[in-house]
């Protein structure tokens, strides 16, 4: 059973700091969308916010090594972790070394600027943390690995040709949007920076949009793939992005790491067949491959002025985009991430059945009938604790129980809240009852919090998991809801076996 702490991560908002006032000012600015490509993403990614270090420490299980997701951590002086917030949404957390950003104001300003960007082709930046020496970035979590993993370390199937072209187009659209939004430079663009979301769609990591910090010793972690102008004078320009994009297209074309200089030699010698990935087994269009090879050649030109711009990239790649009606996850050969598992095949208890069909009336009847029998053993009160305050608290619970029985759920919430706020006695049943009251008042967020509190008081209580499953379903988090329903059913069966055996 997982620790309750991981389920009750605090995402409280601290008092407004100068950094947050800066965020509010910058969030009012509107960046123009690119003239070519998809519209900016709005209303999907969470708003940009400042997290506390304790939030992110709890979300990542104290930055456990088991939560590390970065595949290039051996060369990078920072690490990316996955984490889970109170609302059960997954995040990616990039933790820098203490000397990475010595100026907290610079870090906050840079993070806020990148946080203004919102696009469906980006793994968007949703927050940051800047406490003491700690510098962390928080982004949307992409659950289906990197392009490098699918391209170079695949186990089940390689990426088909049409999907490779889709990756190239989507990343070109991301770069075009960033350029239009005032972020023309992207640092260390490579196959590890391309991530796949829950639908299998490729997205560009927002982390590369941050300007180099002190521990970012170079524009690229691999000198063989670094733009010539950086090696020459240490400067990068928007055209440097195009060079790096050319190396990513080269990876997509060949399925392996080929130094750009070597690739250009092969292109000049017209050895296109040697450049294309043998794992494709000839299942691609030679005409399309020729277009891609020519685009690689243009992107890898020595002189920055000879390279195309982002709109040229889209204009070249968009006509090659085929199978537009086929979802990306099917083309990658991965399951759709948000598909909810089926409900348990074993018979459900009356409570399980009620939760499965989200029958709040039936759940209410069961909780009324059960009363407080599951609270036994959760509180042991001495005679000294039996004060007037205790009597007042129990009176509040009693009024709440009458209101709960009579279906006056708003009054029940008020009375149960009085009982809970005193804090002398902890009752999982009160949390479960108030959770149902919140659901019946169409407030699934506090309902979920109460169900999670009930679990913390009584970690193996099936009812706590049942109530979480209903609240999660109300929040349209159906996969998590099904997981909770399965967990509740398992605990209930275990409890029944223990009762029979005693």
UniProtKB/TrEMBL annotation:
<keyword id="KW-0449">Lipoprotein</keyword>
<feature type="domain" description="Protein kinase">
    <location>
        <begin position="66"/>
        <end position="324"/>
    </location>
</feature>
<dbReference type="InterPro" id="IPR001245">
    <property type="entry name" value="Ser-Thr/Tyr_kinase_cat_dom"/>
</dbReference>
<keyword id="KW-0067">ATP-binding</keyword>
<dbReference type="GO" id="GO:0005524">
    <property type="term" value="F:ATP binding"/>
</dbReference>
<keyword id="KW-0723">Serine/threonine-protein kinase</keyword>
<feature type="region of interest" description="Disordered">
    <location>
        <begin position="1"/>
        <end position="43"/>
    </location>
</feature>
<dbReference type="InterPro" id="IPR058209">
    <property type="entry name" value="TPR_BSK1_C"/>
</dbReference>
<keyword id="KW-0418">Kinase</keyword>
<keyword id="KW-0808">Transferase</keyword>
<protein>
    <recommendedName>
        <fullName>non-specific serine/threonine protein kinase</fullName>
        <ecNumber>2.7.11.1</ecNumber>
    </recommendedName>
</protein>
<dbReference type="InterPro" id="IPR045845">
    <property type="entry name" value="BSK"/>
</dbReference>
<dbReference type="GO" id="GO:0005886">
    <property type="term" value="C:plasma membrane"/>
</dbReference>
<dbReference type="InterPro" id="IPR000719">
    <property type="entry name" value="Prot_kinase_dom"/>
</dbReference>
<keyword id="KW-0519">Myristate</keyword>
<keyword id="KW-0547">Nucleotide-binding</keyword>
<dbReference type="GO" id="GO:0009742">
    <property type="term" value="P:brassinosteroid mediated signaling pathway"/>
</dbReference>
<dbReference type="Pfam" id="PF07714">
    <property type="entry name" value="PK_Tyr_Ser-Thr"/>
</dbReference>
<dbReference type="InterPro" id="IPR011009">
    <property type="entry name" value="Kinase-like_dom_sf"/>
</dbReference>
<keyword id="KW-0472">Membrane</keyword>
<comment type="similarity">
    <text>Belongs to the protein kinase superfamily. Ser/Thr protein kinase family.</text>
</comment>
<dbReference type="Pfam" id="PF25575">
    <property type="entry name" value="TPR_BSK1_C"/>
</dbReference>
<feature type="compositionally biased region" description="Polar residues">
    <location>
        <begin position="7"/>
        <end position="22"/>
    </location>
</feature>
<dbReference type="InterPro" id="IPR011990">
    <property type="entry name" value="TPR-like_helical_dom_sf"/>
</dbReference>
<keyword id="KW-1070">Brassinosteroid signaling pathway</keyword>
<dbReference type="GO" id="GO:0004674">
    <property type="term" value="F:protein serine/threonine kinase activity"/>
</dbReference>
<keyword id="KW-1003">Cell membrane</keyword>
């Amino acid at each position: 059973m997982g620790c309750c702490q991981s389920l009750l991560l605090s995402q409280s908002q601290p008092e407004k700091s100068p950094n947050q006032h800066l965020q509010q000012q910058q969030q009012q600015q509107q960046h123009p969308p690119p003239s070519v490509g998809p519209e900016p993403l709005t209303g999907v990614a969470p708003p940009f916010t400042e997290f506390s270090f304790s939030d992110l420490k709890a979300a990542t299980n104290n930055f456990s090594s088991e939560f590390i997701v970065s595949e290039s951590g051996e060369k990078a002086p920072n690490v990316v972790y996955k984490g889970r917030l109170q609302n059960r949404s997954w995040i990616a957390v990039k933790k820098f070394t203490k000397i990475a950003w010595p100026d907290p104001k610079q870090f906050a300003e840079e993070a806020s600027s990148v946080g203004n960007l919102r696009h469906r082709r980006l793994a968007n930046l949703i927050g940051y943390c800047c406490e003491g020496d700690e510098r962390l970035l928080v982004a949307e979590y992409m659950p289906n690995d990197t392009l490098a993993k699918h391209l170079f370390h695949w186990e089940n199937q390689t990426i088909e040709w049409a999907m490779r072209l889709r990756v190239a187009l989507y990343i070109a659209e991301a770069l075009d949007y960033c350029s239009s939004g005032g972020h023309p430079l992207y640092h260390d663009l490579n196959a590890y920076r391309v991530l796949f979301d829950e639908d299998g769609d490729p997205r560009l990591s927002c982390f590369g949009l941050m300007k180099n910090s002190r521990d970012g010793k170079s524009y690229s972690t691999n000198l063989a793939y670094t733009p010539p102008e950086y090696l020459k004078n240490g400067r990068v320009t928007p055209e440097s992005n195009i060079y790096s994009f050319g190396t990513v297209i080269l990876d997509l074309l060949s399925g392996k790491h080929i130094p750009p200089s070597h690739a250009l030699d092969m292109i000049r010698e017209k050895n296109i067949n040697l450049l294309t990935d043998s794992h494709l087994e000839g299942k691609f269009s030679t005409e399309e491959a020729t277009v891609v090879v020519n685009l690689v050649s243009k992107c890898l030109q020595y002189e920055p002025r000879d390279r195309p711009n982002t709109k040229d990239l889209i204009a070249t790649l968009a006509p090659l985009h085929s199978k537009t009606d086929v979802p990306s996850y099917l083309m990658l050969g991965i399951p759709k991430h948000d598909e909810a598992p089926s409900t348990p095949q074993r018979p459900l208890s009356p409570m399980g059945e009620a939760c499965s069909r989200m029958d709040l009336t039936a759940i209410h009847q069961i909780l009324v009938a059960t009363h407080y029998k599951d609270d036994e053993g959760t509180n042991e009160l001495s005679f000294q604790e039996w004060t007037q305050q205790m009597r007042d608290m129990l009176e509040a619970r009693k009024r709440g129980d009458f209101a709960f029985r009579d279906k006056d759920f708003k009054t029940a919430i008020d009375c149960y809240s009085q009982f809970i706020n005193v804090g002398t006695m902890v009752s999982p049943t009160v949390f479960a009852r108030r959770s149902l009251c919140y659901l019946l008042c169409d407030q699934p967020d506090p309902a979920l919090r109460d169900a999670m509190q009930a679990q913390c008081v009584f970690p193996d209580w099936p009812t706590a998991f049942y109530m979480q499953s209903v609240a999660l379903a109300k929040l349209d988090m159906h996969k998590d809801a099904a997981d909770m329903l399965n967990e509740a059913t398992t605990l209930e069966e275990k409890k029944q076996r223990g009762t029979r055996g005693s």
